Amino acid sequence: MLTHDAALEWIARWDRQQEGYLPDREERFTALIDAVEAAGRPDPLVIDLGCGPGSLSARLLERLPGATVVSVDADPLLLGLGRAAYPHLRFVSLDLRTPGWSDSLGLDGPADVAVSTTALHWISGSDLPKMYAELATVLRPGGLLLNGDHMETDDTAPAIARLERAVHDRETERAFAGRRPEDWRQWWDAVAADPAFAELHAERATAGADHHGSESPLLSTHVDALRDAGFTEIGPLWQRGNNRLLCAVRG
């Protein structure tokens, strides 16, 4: 059985391996939560899309204890880990690629903000417009999407795209000086070897929740899909290389 303390330790280990890809991960979290706070409500209703084990959701509630956060993911193991570590959070199991997913959120009214970090690139270019269109139906007019992720400049600006990747890569090299932490695959292999996760790991295998590569990495793919979904103002609030916090305002 997965205990509360063990879950917190595994999430700390998750955070470390994520920082191996994002040495400025905490800075991006801070910028995102700054934006939620600056939106003006002390008690915002927030949807965390692709929440994983709840790293962002937990930080958001620490800063804004009056917020209501609905944390959404399709991975049974990560949800089980989050529920054990953060019993005060509300986790919802659903797949954002399945039309009608918003019906399972159980919202009392329109949400003020949707947030996401390092998650929405897993949604294919064909599914992304439908997901954003459905998201627009549950956000209030003027509500925000704040999406932190690696989003590449497309082939229309190859020199800028190359420099953005170089900025990110050089920052990573400086941060770790050749001593990279555990990577994503090693973390999952370690989880699979821990008997406390046996049931959750079996459930994950049945659910087919594993990822098979980034499917919508281009910034333009997200911007076009958001504009088609009725979001009006779209642009970066924070950026370092190809690591961005993209903001979109629902019309």
From TrEMBL:
It holds the Pfam family Methyltransf_25. Gene3D superfamilies: Vaccinia Virus protein VP39. Residues 46-143 form the Methyltransferase domain. It comes from the Bacteria. InterPro entries: Methyltransf_25, Methyltransf_Superfamily, SAM-dependent_MTases_sf. GO terms for molecular function: methyltransferase activity. This is Methyltransferase domain-containing protein.
